[in-house]
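haha ok so turns out i had the wrong file open the whole time. this is the CORRECT one, sorry everyone. sequence first:
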Amino acid sequence: MTLSQKFILTTCRPLLNILFSWKTEGRENVPLTGPLILVANHVHVLDPIFLAFSLPRWITFVAKEELFRSPFLRFWLRWAGSLSIDREGKVREKQRILKSARNALEEGLILGMFPEGGRSQDGKLRKGKLGSAVIASKTNVPLLPVGIVGTDKIKGISWLWKRPRIVVNIGKPFKLPPTSGRMSKSQMQLLTTQLMREIAALLPPEYQGAYEKHED
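then structure:
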């Protein structure tokens, strides 16, 4: 974490506390050193902000390539060290992001990813994309699951006086089975399901969406 990043986190935290009623649970589950892949549900554009203020370490987020087209956002994303990803990219693009992810993890950083591939419009967990699980399996790096609850209530302007209650629930790190060779689509889907269920377990039933448990 750079000095400017520390400065921003320190100076902006009071503002976040004024605007929102929020808390972090499970902060003790975050290892203070070593590479990690943070995986979380994604509902609101502010989700990365809450994650950044919830962890004791800086997060290097993987952001969609479209965001880098805005001069304003590009400046902040590059300042934050974010990695760009083309969600419609072919094999070469996938190899590029895997290489970038490896480099970040080899430096002992936390790589932040939203496995759903975009924001959920109704707040419920959507089916996960394959990328996060593939990167975790090929790098053999622990995953840190996080469930964010309440950001779906940030709508219009009424939230300014309602101050919706937001909880960032951090789970315990876990690992997926490591792989080195080519993976079949069924293998990738199986690993992705395992990953997404870890996130779902940190959310209330009404937010678990595609991964809601049903009693037989």
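The chain has one domain: 21-202.
again sry for the mixup
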